[in-house]
Amino acid sequence: MEAMKNIASVACSTESSSVGKTHHTFSKKERICGKKDISNLLSSGKYIISPALRCCCLPDNGLPYSRIMISVPKKSFKRAVKRNLLKRRIREAYRLGKGVLPDGMGADLLIIYTPKEVLSSAEISSSMATSTLVTTP
After folding, report:
1. Domain range for 26
2. Phi and psi dihedrals of 110, rounded to 5?
3. Within 19-103, where are the H helices?
4. Structure confidence at residue 6 as a pLDDT band (50, 70, 90)
5. Any idea what the CATH number is for the domain that residue 110 is in?
6. Model confidence pTM above 0.85
7. Is the pLDDT score of 45 beyond 70?
8. The pairing of beta strand 67-71 with beta strand 53-58
C-alpha cells in the first residue's frame, strides 16, 4: 500500500527532478486507448483524491512508460471550448511533471477534473502535486 502511495504521488507530481528525464514531450503512445486497457484500469486501479482532480491509478501497466487519459465531464462544462482548455492544462501539468517518474516503470492514470469552475494552470499543477491515496473502489 505504501508503494502504491509513492507511485501515485510521483505520478501526479508536477515538480521536475534534476536527475530525472529532461525530455518534456507527450507522444501518442502515452495516451490510453482501447476498451481493454480502460476497463482494466477502472476495474483494478486505486483512486487518488486531490482538491481539483480525481485520479484512478494502476501502478504497473507492463510498459516502460506511463500512460494517461483525461476526462472533463460534459455535465459540468457544456461548451467544448472550456473542456478542451482544461484538458490542455491537465496535459501540460502532467507533461512537465512526468520527469520525476522512475525509469522503466509504467503506470496507467485516469485524471478526472471535478470542480465546477475553470481553474488556472498553476492551481491544476498544485492540485496534481498534493493528491493523496484513497482506498475506495
Report:
1. 2-134
2. -110, 120
3. 35-44, 80-97
4. very low
5. 3.30.230.10
6. no
7. yes
8. unpaired
